[in-house]
Amino acid sequence: MTISYNWLCDYLPVKPSPEELSVILTRIGLEVESLEQFESVKGSLEGLIIGEVLTVAQHPNADKLRLTTVNTGNGEPLNIVCGAPNVAVGQKVVVAPIGATIYPASGEPLTMKKAKIRGEESHGMLCAEDEIGLGGSHEGILVLDPALQPGTPAREIFNPVQDWIYEIGLTPNRMDAMSHLGVVKDVCAYLNNAENTLQHKALIPEISPLPQATEAFPITVTIENTDACPRYSGVTISGVKIQPSPDWLKNKLLAIGVRPINNIVDITNFILHETGQPLHAFDAKAIKGQKVIVKNLPQNTTFVTLDEKERKLDAADLMICNAEGEPMAIAGVFGGLHSGVTADTQHIFLESACFSPASIRPTSFRHGLRTDAAARFEKGVDISGTVYVLQRAAALICELAGGQIASPIIDVYPFPKPQTEVETTWAYIKKLSGKVYPADKIERILTSLGFTMMSKTAEKFRVAVPYSKPDISLAPDIVEEIMRIDGLDNIEIPSQVTITPAPAQRPDKEKIREKAANYLASNGFNEIFTNSITNSKYFTPEVLAYSVRMINSLSADLDIMRPSMLETGLESVSHNLNRRNENLLFFEFGNTYATYKPNEYEETPHLCLYLTGSKKTESWLHKAQPVDFYFLKGYVQNVLQLLGLTGLQWSEPETGGFWKISIRNKEVVSLGAVPAQKLKQFDIKQPVWFADFNWTNVLGLLQKSNNFYKEIPKFPAVRRDLALVLDRKIQFVAVEAAAKTVKSPLLQQLNLFDVFESEKLGADKKSYAVSFTFQDAQKTLTDKEIDGVMEKLVKAFEGQLNAEIRK
């Protein structure tokens, strides 16, 4: 939300400095994210002065240059070389003396220095309007009123606007602060609280008598869907002249980033940002039958909007129609091409209405029309203010466009909305806020904000909520209003904090997650956080069949909840690779979503690893080593081992698929290389390795009791080696599985330390060199005990794997 300091000051009874106001806004919950200066003319003509041309002579060394002397009202005349064809004696001009900086309409700023131009000294510059940012003309120097006095600062003549612009981080519930008057009301409430008074009130503009047209132009209004449009006000204004807005109005809009268009459109935009109430102006002559009907139209009715696009309407879209039922505007969202104000418009019908947020928001997203009007209607507007805002806008149109009121003010309000009332206790305010607020302070704050005290006793009170705060309906909302106006930084820190201890959850999910994250981070991984909403184009129809689709998607590219973590992670990988960050180790905790039955949804937590590039960059010691499957496998096994999970069961992948790791028949990890087809979707040209932990299954397999530690054995371990000749297709996991069938407590560890392939071993054969570590915690092992276990291992390998033992 963008707010202008000068604009706020138009309604404030006191004028704090921009910095003081910034502090106040943040204290009352309107966090100022930035404060920047706005200048209607860049540089605000600082240092430029009015001069009088005393003499003009031909430059001796250049046909198109002139030598001038200029009186600047300050000592000796300045000698200035000028190339303008219109320079003449007696002219009053804008002078940029030495040291002044000019800001051209296009190009870089230029600071004046003493210079020699074709052999003649020049002590400044005579300026054209484009050279100082006042316009686009470069036909010659800017010639001013002869009555001006030399030496007068140029900024006093042209009065460039300087302003301070606040960017406020509004929370979604604060629709009451989506306007300058709304912010001013909060500031006044803060000032009243700080000074224990009620005298500070917003200076709301008064409505002057409106000129009446001699010829009436009445337009009737009918509301067919009163749920979507509870109130509709309007008035006809005739005799308007469409033309550019005055500078003061243009500058107000430019300061907050709104582009001026013409006086009628600019006035509606001005009122929107002044009051928070959207308006819409129709060409009255385009309203057939001089009747406005607010209703819904049949599904797939076509309508051409102001941007000249033909749109198919949904049956839920609320429309503004004429007497023939033809659509003229999408209510509260966007106008129509054939009923809008044009340069030839002479009569307008001005709309000020209240539309239901439940109607506006789906329509706005459905058609991709995120307008300022829709943003306000979808949060709720002040239903009590439609007529005042209409009169305020009509008065400006009569003043700036020469209009006259050609009809009575229409106000269709079939079911007046009752004022919301909220009851709470003084004790509840203390309990929720943690602070004891005196009753008179509470009443003063609420009264300053527009609340009406309906009743109060020693225990409780009841207030009527102003219509400008439709989000307030509960007692906690009242507490929030009191706390923020008093200042959130005024809540005392208690001397004691009392808590009720709860039994610790086993296993502690947060500690487990932190343990895994710390391990990965300490080993060079960076944690990423990606959007849980993604693009359906990444997935096959089979996956989309069980995906959770967004009803009101934020954009066409964000339309489903992610069914897989891989795609959003690859977006981050691609983003980094495109910026030459090629060696990546990422991990992410996140959720996936699925629906297999109507209205039943599954949310599954995951830990995912993404690896690409080199695990070691090249140096004089070694060449670059790219990450590979075994590098990924090592980290996966280490994470599982860190969490105390053993007994891994490996499943070989199908073609192009991932390896699977299960524990006690529960799949915990899938890992492998990302398929090339998937990498191509993200324009990734180097291999990416991926591991996906099913975090629910991981947590379910963790032990629920405390860990117990054993003393390190005092007796030495013994190592024995075997070389096994096996079929080439047999993986090492099969060797591990066969070794585990020999259930000996002495066997502590086995490790593959060499793989050898040669035709000498036989066709399609290979050799695994495997080490076995034995240890007994109670005594030193003997050769006989170890040989007994080794014989069992050899028999297991020969019987289960048809292995040959190399001698």
Summary of the model, kept short:
By secondary structure, the protein is an alpha+beta fold. The chain has 20 helices and 43 strands.
* Number of helical segments with 4 or more residues: 20
* Alpha carbon gyration radius: 39 Å
Percentage of β-strand residues: 25-35%
Largest sheet: 7 strands, mixed
**Percent range for helical residues?**
25-40%
Summed over residues and divided by their number, the pLDDT gives a mean of 92
**Which parts are unreliable, with pLDDT below 50 for 5 consecutive residues or more?**
none
Structure report:
The chain is extended and about 120 Å long. It has 807 residues and is of the alpha+beta class. It has 20 helices and 43 strands. The model has no long low-confidence stretch (mean pLDDT 92). The N and C termini lie far apart (80 Å). The chain has a seven-stranded mixed sheet. It has a five-stranded antiparallel sheet with strand order 5-4-3-6-11, with no helix packed on it. A five-stranded mixed sheet has the order 13-16-19-20-21.
List the helices and strands and how they pair.
Layout (H helix, E strand, L loop, with lengths): L1 E3 H5 L8 H10 L3 E9 L9 E10 L7 E6 L6 E5 L9 E6 L3 E2 L7 E2 L3 E3 L2 E3 L1 E3 L27 H5 L3 E8 L10 H16 L24 E4 L7 E8 L8 H9 L7 H13 L4 E4 L7 E6 L5 E3 L5 E3 L5 E4 L5 E4 L3 E2 L11 E8 L2 H10 L5 H6 L8 H16 L2 E2 L4 E3 L8 E5 H8 L5 H10 L3 E5 L3 E5 L10 H12 L22 H14 L3 E2 L5 E2 L6 H4 L3 E2 L10 E2 L4 H12 L6 E14 L2 E13 L1 E3 L8 E2 L2 H14 L6 E3 L7 E5 L2 E8 L2 H6 L6 E7 H7 L16 E10 L4 H9 L6 E10 L8 E10 L8 H19 L2 E2 L2
Parallel strand pairs: 13-16, 28-32
Antiparallel strand pairs: 1-12, 2-12, 3-4, 3-6, 4-5, 6-11, 7-8, 9-10, 14-22, 14-23, 14-24, 15-22, 16-19, 17-18, 19-20, 20-21, 25-27, 26-27, 29-31, 30-31, 32-33, 33-39, 34-35, 36-37, 37-38, 38-39, 40-42, 40-43, 41-42
